[in-house]
Design a protein that fits this description.
Length: 75
């Protein structure tokens, strides 16, 4: 599933970013509504990541490291 142990840990870190221990409203209830629509700027980043050997899911959050690499490649 993962190309390396580093890729596994990187995804774990990215999933844990933004996890908060405050403002819990109870079972099944989030403190704020989730944004379900993908951002339109995500698709070019995903295409670039796939073409350049990065592991990125077709849906969901794009890791910060991949966003930074994409921005750096754009000049």
């Amino acid at each position: 599933m993962y190309a390396s142990l580093f890729a596994f840990f990187q995804e774990a870190v990215d999933r844990l970013e933004g996890v908060s221990s405050g403002d819990w409203t109870g079972p099944g209830k989030s403190a704020r509504p989730r944004k379900l629509d993908p951002r339109p700027e995500d698709e070019p980043i995903r295409l670039w990541a796939h073409a350049n050997g990065y592991l990125v899911n077709d849906r969901g959050r794009i890791p910060a490291a991949i966003r930074e690499a994409y921005k750096a490649s754009q000049g």
